[in-house]
Specification:
The complex is a heterodimer of chains A (135) and B (180). Chain A is mostly helical. Chain A has 2 domains: 51 residues, no CATH class; 56 residues. Chain A contains 6 helices and no strands. The longest helix of chain A is centred in the C-terminal third of the chain and has 25 residues. The radius of gyration of chain A is 40 Å and the shape is rod-shaped. With 180 residues, chain B is mainly α. Helices cover 78% and strands 0% of the residues of chain B. Chain B contains 9 helices and no strands. Classes of the chains: A mainly alpha (135), B mainly alpha (180). Chains A and B meet through helix 1, helix 3 and helix 4 of A and helix 1, helix 2, helix 5, helix 6 and helix 8 of B.
Chain lengths: 135, 180
């Protein structure tokens, strides 16, 4: 068993945590005290064993870059589909109502052509808007 | 992206330290990097609200500690749930039996797992942070005297465990055992 007054000092000595004066005091005491000398030796080996067991791992080279990429992804504005869906529903409702009214004045062939044209216009407009808003 | 330069500086300055704090908790590099990423995501989100009341380092490590503690709580409940399944428990015990006792470093890690967590955390960070009391005190937000106390108590407990193993006839580090 080490001397109680020196136990913590020896531990700190092994951790390079003492000032020069205290280091000298520990060294002088250890030179004369076999129990504290044995304790110091055990602590040195424990220190080495802990160093080996814990190591000092560094993050991978791409660590910082991955953080920045992830943050950039999170910082992108969220895509909002709601206005587009509402527009599509409104457009379809108007088209349905219009077709009911218009088909009374047109022949079936003319009505079919009109519907195809309206559908193509609708698809073109939705695609253009999706591209513009990055959806 | 406003503040991106400032954020990049934070990643440069604290990235490795936050990684090591996560590593001290998880003991596995890939998982520690994922957790450290999570910490930096929170730092990024909180950066506009940082008013400088605490030092930047204190603020960063407070977020890191909180994120790590939340992670640990989540993991603890997940593990408790999964170990309730008998097959999972058997697999975990088998893994432990296969790895236990191979190499002094592995056994030292095993012993570290048996001392109180506050001592283990202080000891692990002390060695991860190149044996600096100041760094450990800053990361754990503890006074330096408390860090030293935890380190010394942790080492004394390790010494007692080593001695107990010696008595059981299961040597860990022969050099250490011959002297304890």
């Amino acid at each position: 068993m080490p001397c109680p007054a020196f136990e913590d000092l020896i531990l700190e000595y092994c951790e390079d945590g003492l000032a020069a004066a205290e280091r000298g005091r520990v060294e002088a005491h250890v030179a004369e005290c076999p129990a504290c000398r044995a304790f110091l030796e055990v602590q040195r080996e424990l220190d080495a064993a802990l160093r080996e067991a814990i190591g000092r791992p560094e993050p991978s080279a791409a660590f910082g870059e991955r953080i920045l990429r992830r943050v950039a992804r999170e910082a992108e504005p969220r895509r909002n589909w709601v206005p587009l869906i509402l527009d599509a529903v409104g457009f379809s409702a108007i088209a349905a109502l219009g077709s009911v009214v218009i088909q009374a004045w047109l022949s079936p062939a003319q009505f079919a052509w009109l519907m195809m044209g309206a559908s193509a216009t609708f698809l073109w407009w939705m695609s253009w808007r999706s591209l513009r808003e990055g959806l | 992206m406003a503040g991106v330069g400032r954020f990049e500086q934070l990643v440069d300055e604290y990235g490795a330290k936050v990684f090591r704090l996560a590593y001290s908790l998880l003991g596995e590099r890939a998982a520690a990097e994922d957790l450290a990423q999570e910490v930096f995501l929170r730092i990024w989100k909180g950066l506009p609200g940082y008013r400088g009341e605490a030092s930047l380092a204190t603020w960063v490590f407070a977020i890191a500690r909180n994120t790590c503690l939340s992670h640990r709580r989540r993991e603890a409940s997940r593990r408790a749930a999964s170990l309730d399944v008998p097959e999972v428990r058997a697999a975990a015990e088998s893994l432990h039996a296969r790895t236990d006792g191979h190499g002094a470093a592995l056994e030292m890690r095993d012993l570290l797992g048996r001392i109180p967590e506050k001592y283990r955390r202080a000891l692990t960070l002390f060695y991860l942070e190149d044996r600096s009391y100041e760094q450990v005190a800053m990361i754990l937000d503890l006074p330096m005297g408390t860090v030293k106390t935890y380190l010394h108590r942790g080492k004394k407990e390790l010494g007692a465990l080593l001695e107990a193993r010696q008595k059981e006839g299961a040597p860990l580090c022969p050099a250490l055992h011959s002297k304890t």
